Amino acid sequence: MASIHKDIPIDAPADHVWDALRDFGALHTRLVPGFVTDTKLDGDVRIVSFANGTVARETLVDCDDNRRRLVYAITSERLKQHSASVQVFAEADGRCRVVWIADVLPHEIAPYMDAQMDRGAAAMQTALKQSAKARNMA
């Protein structure tokens, strides 16, 4: 199984980042706008429309407020296995770090998933820095 790890520095406080990350149905408005164009909830499943035209069904596995950790799984015809966790860690300077790990099969999909996660990480950094700055100015 391919394991993809992203360690993402965010210029925003951990509580602010966790609040956006745990909002399971708001990827397109709060966490990764532009990278994700729409999110619809269907119970514990979110149907995610990406800017590249891909649509994914992501099932919420766990949302742990104490650990600031969210776990989800994707089911599709292309993927034999996809499980991911995203966790927020506070840093001493009022910033935070997001650790995003995805385990995928088949191995051949890993380069595509890695590139998509890089795009998602960049969108996350931009959106959360801007929303934290706007919140501090209010």
Set down the secondary structure blueprint.
Layout: E1 2-10, H1 14-21, H2 27-31, E2 36-42, E3 45-50, E4 55-64, E5 69-74, E6 81-90, E7 96-105, H3 110-137
Antiparallel strand pairs: 1-7, 2-3, 3-4, 4-5, 5-6, 6-7
Task: Provide a quick synopsis of the model.
By secondary structure, this protein is α+β, with helices and mostly antiparallel strands.
Question: Kindly state the mean pLDDT as a whole number?
Answer: 95
Q: Give the H and E element order.
A: EHHEEEEEEH
Rounded radius of gyration (Å): 14 Å
Largest sheet: 7 strands, antiparallel
Query: What structural class do helix, strand and pairing data support?
Result: alpha+beta
Q: What portion of residues belong to β-strands?
A: 35-45%
Give the end-to-end Cα distance, rounded to a whole number of Å.
46 Å
The CATH architecture classification is 2-Layer Sandwich
CATH superfamily: START domain
So how many helices?
A: 3
- Low confidence ranges: none
Do you know the CATH topology?
Answer: Alpha-D-Glucose-1,6-Bisphosphate, Chain A, domain 4
Strand order of the largest sheet: 1-7-6-5-4-3-2
